Amino acid sequence: MTNYVISTPPVVAIPVAGSEGLFPVRRVYCIGRNYAAHAIEMGHDPDREPPFFFQKNPDNLDSSGEFPYPPHTEDVHHEIEMLVALKSGGRNIPLAEALDHVYGYGISLDMTRRDLQGQMKKMGRPWEIGKAFERSAPCGPVHPVAEVGHPSDGLVQLKVNGKVTQEGDLNQMIWKVPEMISYLSEYFELAAGDVILSGTPSGVGPVVRGDRMEASVAGLGKLSVAVV
């Protein structure tokens, strides 16, 4: 028995749709500016450029249905994303084999302290203070590939208090899921339990306490989250 000097942290896990099982999370990779319209609204060129990724922490994922408004910010934005959950990994994964490593898909939100992220960008500093705070990735259950296949097109939509704010299609992703997996594996050794948030369409915007976000991705159901 390992003699840890403090209590071991709990394993972070998210529900699996139609099952009592849980998907344990190892790492969370997030791709930036993966929809052209979102790149434009953030002031960037939408042309296909090498992808870039940042990370959230595993325990940022939260399936409680509530998003506590975080401290030290006055501008928290919603970003709906399709979540990709890996069952295996490796290095230098060939593009043709990338989807073999996917366990399933789900819906997540990349909540962002936009004002703090903007400050970090201006100062040339990392984004974690704007992206990787507690419960900053509300998520729904993982839907196994055996049930939903590999979604590559279909509506991606977010409503705030019943009004559509974000809308796009999975086929508008600049870098597709196999490309993300293959590219990441050139720089990191991917493994079972890794999660990729695949980017957000245009329409990102602020939320306040009392708002209700309703996110949907075709074939993956809906995710309802209250801002508290």
Q: Could you characterize what this model shows?
A:
With 228 residues, this protein is α+β, with helices and mostly antiparallel strands. The chain has one domain: Fumarylacetoacetase-like, C-terminal domain (Fumarylacetoacetate hydrolase, domain 2). Helices cover 15% and strands 32% of the residues. The chain has helices at 36-41, 114-123, 128-131, 145-148, 177-187; strands at residues 13-15, 22-24, 28-31, 53-56, 61-62, 66-67, 76-78, 80-86, 102-109, 112-113, 137-138, 143-144, 155-160, 163-169, 195-197, 205-207, 212-217, 222-227. The strands form five sheets. Strands 4-3-15-8-9-12 form a six-stranded mixed sheet. The protein has a five-stranded mixed sheet with strand order 6-18-17-13-14, with no helix packed on it. The chain has a three-stranded antiparallel sheet with strand order 10-7-16. Residues 28-227 form the Fumarylacetoacetase-like C-terminal domain. GO terms for molecular function: acetylpyruvate hydrolase activity; metal ion binding. InterPro entries: Fumarylacetoacetase-like_C, Fumarylacetoacetase_C_sf.
Q: What would the keywords be for this entry?
A:
228 residues; five-stranded mixed β-sheet; Fumarylacetoacetate hydrolase, domain 2; six-stranded mixed β-sheet; alpha+beta
The low-confidence runs, each spanning 5 or more residues with pLDDT under 50, are none
Strand arrangement, largest sheet? Answer: 4-3-15-8-9-12
How many DSSP-defined strands? 18
Largest sheet: 6 strands, mixed
